[in-house]
Amino acid sequence: MTAPMPTPTPTSPSASAIPSSPASHGPAQARPARRGLLLAVLWAGMAVMVAPFLWMALSAFKSEKDLGATPTVWIPEDWTLIHFEKLVGLLDVGAHFFNSTLVAVVVTACNLVFCSMLGYALAKLNFAGKRPVFALVMCALMVPGNLMLMPMFVMVSKMGLIDSYAALILPFAAGAFGVFLMRQFMTAIPDELLEAARIDGAGEWFIFWRIAMPLVKPALATLAIFTFLQSWNNFLWPLVATNDPGKYTLPVALATFAIDPTKTNGSNGVLMAGAFLVVLPVLLVFILLQRYFTQGIATAGLK
Amino acid sequence: MATTTPSRRGVPDRAHAVRSGAGAGGAAGRGRRPGPRKDRLSVQNLPGWMFSTPFLALFLTFMAVPIVATFVMSFTDFGLRNVADPFATEFVGVENYARLFDDERFLTSLFNTFYFVVLGVPLTVGAGLFAAVLLNRGVGRLRTFFRVGFYAPVVTSIVAVAVVWRFVLDPADGLISGLASEVGLRSPDFLGSKALAMPSLIVMAVWRNLGTAMVLFLAGLQGIPAEVREAARLDGAGVWQEFRRITVPLLRPTMLYVSVMTTIGFLNVFEEPFVMTEGGPDNATMTVSLDMYEQGFKFFHMGYASAMAYVLFTVILAVTLLQLRLLKDKTR
């Protein structure tokens, strides 16, 4: 399904900074009764959004007896780590964590550099072929990944790269979205600044690294977060490009584990423990960095 | 609209005579700018080309070549033996495409995928818009809290949440069945029934993706000037009228973007049925992407799977163009 789309809101990080308007502003701040209803609806929605996560987290710590109990035991009666122990016995969790992390870090670093480079060229340099290159980037934005699945697999097999980190990294090392985003932000850099540096005899490479890049740090942060997440959650290509379980990324390991009943013995506890380990780091990072998720991509995503 | 830059300087010829080129190219299109020098090999072009090289090299290798290769493969009987020897494959003309439309399972996949999109996209976009409008109505300090909560599922791995939802929907020990038994009801076997399996996946997909729509709509809502709302209220517009006459029309561009993006994502639906139902029961949740994956990597009918990939791609293009047509903001 959709990779998390960059979803910007151009609000100040703390939405609380928006003062509630004076009463003359009518519905913008609802009357008490209406506000109560509004909050009730939002809380109900929140409950639906959070319930599966809570269910997962609680179930991961329930004993087998609690998991199968009728009536349902909502809060574990005796908290246990047995499912995590089982999981570590069945899956090499450490290795999958390492694979996922390594791939995501390298993919993110490559995207930051390569997308910024082309973004800079498209925003601030003149060269023959600029328009076609930009058109290519826009086309690449439209192409769904699974259109290339079969030949990519054949290519990677022929190169002998199945089960290699290269196979997991290279196809995602420069995304069109990143180019588009970086171009948007680089466009806003004042030309006079670059010009002054050029007159002082700075080379283009120096200007890019020392002047342009520091000026687009917020965009880089945003791109880094989204690229990392996309890589972390990526599934179909790693599924196809790895045969050796030792090279599985977390989602592939979890999925192959989940659809193989012989492994889980029908224990949902082990699966919840697995899901918990995959979801928790991402959720924590998201909650810590949520303001970066909600910054400035609006200019790129929304015309 | 992409902001156009003021006139931009080209690379100076060694510090004198600075040409001024203008415009940021692309969509802005504010008049034609004098293009780069005509002599292609001039030193002026070098930096631009150097900066483009890494992306273009990767793009060619991992996108352009495979796209063309998929197209060629779709007219061949490419199979398992060809993975080792790609050029030993036979051309079979349009046979793959012809067979697709006699293939019961593929037609079912196509139907299911449309079912997923036709129900899932409006629900996702609607729920996202609803949440955004509510959050835009001065909930003060809690706004960030709700926004984080509604967006949280988007950042999590689909595989992980699919595993979780499989258990949430479990008829014996699941969350829903637990809630149902609290009020004396019995939970149906959601994923095991032909009628309920697809709707269950749709509910999960809406749950996971409405945050994306919400955050984009919030951005759009904040772009609506307060004066416009003010004027509407002075003219005596009620809440509903304001929504109909101000919010919806002014959100059109956002609506277009959100709908197109969500639709493309939903047409490619793969992980949910793969993890939750494996396409079952009885192909009730078989989708085009899943069918393609199985044809290509379970049965190694790669030529056939390539034809499927192109049919799906064509569908995506057609639906996207249709949406651009229908939702295009005519006032611009």
Automatic annotation (TrEMBL), chain B:
Gene3D superfamilies, per the entry: MetI-like
Keyword Transmembrane: yes
Top-level division of the source organism's lineage: Bacteria
Keywords, in A-Z order: Cell membrane, Membrane, Transmembrane, Transmembrane helix, Transport
Chief subcellular location: membrane
Subcellular localization: Cell membrane
PANTHER family on file: ABC TRANSPORTER PERMEASE PROTEIN, INNER MEMBRANE ABC TRANSPORTER PERMEASE PROTEIN YCJO
UniProt protein name: Sugar ABC transporter permease
